[in-house]
Each structure stands twice: as C-alpha cells, then as structure tokens.
Amino acid sequence: MNYQSNNYSPNTEFTVFPPAVKHLLIINFVVYLASWTPGIGPLLQTYAPLFPIESPLFYPWQFITYMFMHADIGHILFNLFALWMFGQAIENFWGTKRFAIYYFLTGIGAGLLHVFVNNDPVMTSQGMQYIPTIGASGAVYGILLAFGMMFPDRPIMLLFLPIPIKAKYFVAFFGAVELYSGVMGTQQGVAHFAHLGGMLVGFILIKVWGLKKEQTYYT
User: Fold this and answer.
1) Is 152 inside a domain boundary?
2) Assigned domain for 218 exists
3) Do the strands 155-158 and 122-124 form a parallel or antiparallel pair, or are they unpaired?
4) How large is the average pLDDT for residues 107-115?
C-alpha cells in the first residue's frame, strides 16, 4: 500500500480498532446508555439533539453533540457497525489525527446542511413542532465517501446481495439514493440531507487536503 502525501502520518501498523474509531465507539455507547438513565437522560434528550436554528431549544454545541445521540439500539448498532467497517480502514490509511478531524468536520457539515434545508416547524399530532435530529449518520456517510475515494476498487459484499461490488459504485449508489430520497421527500424521518452534507463536506476536504487513493490494484 503506497501513501501519496507527506502532509499526514498514516498508522505504521494496521489495527482493527485504531484509536479514534475505538474511542468513538465507546463514547457513543456510553452516551446512548446515559441518555436512558434517570436524571442525566432527560437533560441529554433535551439539550444534545440538533434542533432547527429557529427553535428555542437550539444551541451551537448541538452540531457536535447530536452525533452521539441515537434513537434506539438498532439505530446505534447500524451507525457504529458502519463506522467501524469503513472507518478503521480510513484511519489506518490516513492516521488518527486526520481521521478524527475529518469525522467531526463531516458531522458538523452534515448538521449545517440539514438545518439549512429543514429549519421550519412541522405539523404533528401535537401541533407545530421543531423536530430535532440525532445520529452519527452524517459523519458515517462522510467516511463512506472517503472509503469510496481512497479504495475505489475494493470489493464490498452485502449480506442481502452476495455479489462483490466495487466501493466506488457502492458509494455512488448510496449517494444517488440519498439525493433522490431527499429531493422527493421519501422515507420521512430520515435526515437525507444530513447524509448528503456529510458526503459533500468529505469530498471537499479530500480535494482540499490533496489526499490520494490507494495504489493497490484488485483483479
């Protein structure tokens, strides 16, 4: 595996749980458990999700804290599995510092695009309300984009489709689905523009940093 840039330090040895990914997994699980704990749970559920800017419950720190909040066990397991599956390869390739900066910037960018597009209250059974956003998906989609750009020819095997798909096509497909779903308004309750925001910011960062893809060829 050849590294094409001198302005960052890739990990010298591949590890399945590199430092940033490992600590993000731990922190997410701790916050998830705390969010269901009496006392601190209601505080987290009130002040940590990302509310629209016009909401009286909006605070600037929510652009970071919302990434560590999850709705249920399925939500957190899906996000953290994807974080580990794609993130450990990126962190080993880029190095921990670069990966951590990328993760948080894509997550913040995802939140910014989401509140820009979805800043108005919505009608619910309880009247007009500002709906908060939670989850690490924006940053995870940023990592997915990075995986597709850094390792475009690596095969990915899906459980429900046992056919290897090159990473670049896998990422392009998911990006297209999110764009279609966001524009058409399908899958209500899913922050499609947050996913797109994470991918957009990730693409910009990779281009600005001048990071090059892996030079290993797969046949």
Assistant:
1) yes
2) no
3) unpaired
4) 94
Closest CA to 107 of 56, 59, 150, 62: 62
**What string of DSSP letters covers 124-159?**
ETTEEEPPPB--SHHHHHHHHHHHHHHSTT-EEEET
Q: Are 50 and 133 in contact (CB under 8 A)?
A: yes
Strand, coil or helix: 14: coil
Whether 104 maps to a domain, the answer reads yes
Structure-model confidence comparison of residues 157 and 200, the more confident one = 200
pLDDT at 80: 95
Average pLDDT over residues 88-99: 96
User: The CATH number of the domain where 24 resides is what?
Assistant: 1.20.1540.10
Mean of the per-residue pLDDT values for the chain? 86
pTM for the predicted model, two decimal places: 0.87
Spatial neighbors of 68 by CB under 8 A, at least 6 apart, are 27, 28, 31, 32, 48, 136
Residue 217 pLDDT: 44
Please state, in angstroms and rounded to a whole number, the distance separating the CA atoms of residues 9 and 169: 28
Q: How many domains does the chain have?
A: 1
> What is the rounded radius of gyration, in angstroms, for the C-alpha atoms of the chain?
18
Length of the chain: 219
Q: How far apart are CA 145 and CA 110, in angstroms?
A: 13
> Which residues form the domain of 87?
19-209
Look at residue 11 in the predicted model and tell me its pLDDT. 57
Q: Does 3 fall in a domain?
A: no
In sequence order, the β-bridge partners of residue 122 are 129
